[in-house]
Amino acid sequence: xxxxxxxxxxxxxxxxxxxxxxxxxxxxxxxxxxxxxxxxxxxxxxxxxxxxxxxxxxxxxxxxxxxxxxxxxxxxxxxxxxxxxxxxxxxxxxx
Length: 95
Hints:
With 95 residues, this protein is α+β, with helices and mostly antiparallel strands. The chain has a single domain (5-86), classed as SH3 type barrels. It has helices at 64-82, 88-93; strands spanning 5-14, 19-24, 27-32, 50-54, 57-62. The chain has a 5-stranded antiparallel β-sheet, covered by helices on one side. The longest helix is centred in the C-terminal third of the chain and has 19 residues, at 64-82. It is elongated. The mean pLDDT is 86.
């Protein structure tokens, strides 16, 4: 299973190589944004955009509401995994 995580582009680090810094839950990483750059989405206008990040690549653009909803679901899953009230078998199924 593959998981894409919403992140916000905070800086362009190398326009020629289409690299940018994205922030995901307070963590910043350099990623490739070539898949989300086109005639209507110039690299210079990408700062502030929400993107779906998977293994170092921005795979698609998201609107802010969709990003917030996905981040909320991921936070719920994290809280569920940390919930020690779950039976041991239930906790193992989430890992």
